Amino acid sequence: MKSKIRLHFDGKDVPGREQTVLEPAGCGPDVAKVEDIPVLKKVFVDVRLDVDDTRLPLLQKLLLAYKVDWSEDRWDEYTDEEYEAAPLIRVTSTNEVSVIGGPRFDTEYDLSSACPACGAGMRQTGAYVLDGTYGESVAKLAQFRAVDSYGEILVDESLAKTLEDAGLSGLSFRSVYARQEDFQKVKLRWRQMWASHTLPPMSPRSTGIVRDKVCKSCGRSKFETTSPERFVYRAQDLVGAQDVNWMWEHFGFVRWSGDLTTAVVWQPDFLVTPKVWRIFRDAGVTGFQWLPIRVVEDE
Ligand SMILES: [Zn+2]
């Protein structure tokens, strides 16, 4: 694993422009991208380094000296070997592959065990329904082999077949429909991934988790994250884990008044074995992020 950092600032904030700090810090075009955007009257400077790169403290010191405001974000990059060795890998998506669907489009749910405050724990009982009227969503189905809809992963028929043929444990599929303007539902050649097993809550040793907004009623939803995220489970939590599992926690935005027609409820993320990661990689699936979890001995 490599811990990476990105520094971002406006080149126009530096007296004499960005090279005043980039050059003495030794940050050449291999790590520093400079983009002049005249319409915004800004020069975007984006520097990406390993966190232990000796150029990092140099650059930070120079930016401070010239009183330049900058932003930083950090993340971890994993090698294929590290993914292969991971006990489980958390799958999340980027906006690039997200499509609109769920309760507001007539997907059916059993609310008997849903949290009254946030809806977490509601159980989908029928096929998954997408918004077939939203062009941007529909276009993604032609462009990608796998898409995300509020935590649900939808895969095209042939990727579903590859996953099915791999004999993965804990995985089944549901049908996917698109609701049209006239409220008719059209069946798509897509399948929704479904897990039979849900893992227990993560170990409190996990970092990068923000718990400030967690639902006061059920403690299960509205988790937020800051990067780098490092998710930890106790060894005993993984007893019974399958190739495809759900997390216990729900991340992200929630809109819930008890009425499905206005609800936005993010479902828990998937935790999968390297077998699943490999199938997605070999199928050329893009737009998803993969985070190997860590396991600690039982406390
Ligand atoms: Zn709740």
Number of domains: 2
- Share of β-strand residues: 35-45%
Q: What's the total number of strands?
A: 22
> Order of strands across the biggest sheet?
13-17-20-5-21
Class of secondary structure makeup: alpha+beta
The largest pleated sheet is described as: 5 strands, mixed
Low-confidence stretches: none
Mean pLDDT: 96
**Individual helix count:** 6
Bound molecules: zinc ion
* Helix-strand string: EHEEHEHEEEEHEEHEEEEEEEEEEHEE
Shape: globular
- Computed CA radius of gyration, to the nearest angstrom: 22 Å
Proportion in helices: 10-25%
Distance between the termini: 25 Å
Essential attributes:
single chain, 299 residues, alpha+beta, Alpha-Beta Plaits, 2 domains, five-stranded mixed β-sheet, 6 helices, 22 strands, binds zinc ion
SSE blueprint:
Elements: E1 2-10, H1 19-25, E2 32-37, E3 42-50, H2 55-65, E4 71-77, H3 80-85, E5 89-93, E6 109-110, E7 123-124, E8 128-131, H4 135-143, E9 146-149, E10 152-156, H5 157-165, E11 171-179, E12 185-195, E13 197-198, E14 207-210, E15 224-230, E16 232-234, E17 244-246, E18 254-255, E19 264-265, E20 270-272, H6 274-282, E21 288-292, E22 294-296
Parallel strand pairs: 8-11, 13-17, 16-22
Antiparallel strand pairs: 1-3, 1-4, 2-3, 5-20, 5-21, 6-7, 9-10, 10-12, 11-12, 14-15, 17-20, 18-19
Helix pairs in contact: 1-2
Bound molecules: zinc ion (ZN).
Zinc ion (ZN) is lined by residues 115, 117-118, 120, 215, 217-218, 220-221.
